[in-house]
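Human:
Class, as today's exercise, you are to examine the entry below, and be ready to discuss the fold:
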Amino acid sequence: MSAAETSNVVAGVAALLVEEGQGGPAIALIDRALLHMPDDDLLLARAFLLERQDRTPEAIADMRKVLARRPRDPEAQNALGYTLVDRTRSIREGHRLIARALEVKPDSYAIQDSMGWALVRLGRLDEGRGWLENAWQRSQDPEVAAHLGETLWLQGRIEDAWRIWDEALAANPDSRPLKRAIERHPR
């Protein structure tokens, strides 16, 4: 098994552990793997798991390490940018990182979603909604639906928000981002 395949297996097992409520063992597994095979993709995987556990400062620290070594990597730029936009007050820094990622991968629906959410968080609702609508049409991703619904809600388009959320929830009943968005905006 190659190092990349081993990293993917470790990250996959760790993600399953987190799903089962075993966040500590999941991070410990990745930490052990990183001792034997330092790998930026594995470090990003740990950052994503830390973020899911609301350990945002640690997640951001890992993302910054990866970005320092791979400053032109659009995935690393988007990961850190989105986290800053969504979880901190450093929205402008996050927006700049996402814009750089879009220059390299303009067709990535995930980066388009991040840009839309950044613009919404900056108060540019119409512009952000355009990015989010495009990302939703291209992906039908439940996290995009969460962002688009929240944006529509902020614009007073409550029925449109619920239409998007209901559609996404029917196809993705276990989506944590979608459930969180819906919980913030009860019917």
Remarks:
- The chain has a mean pLDDT of 94.
- Residues 1-55 form one domain.
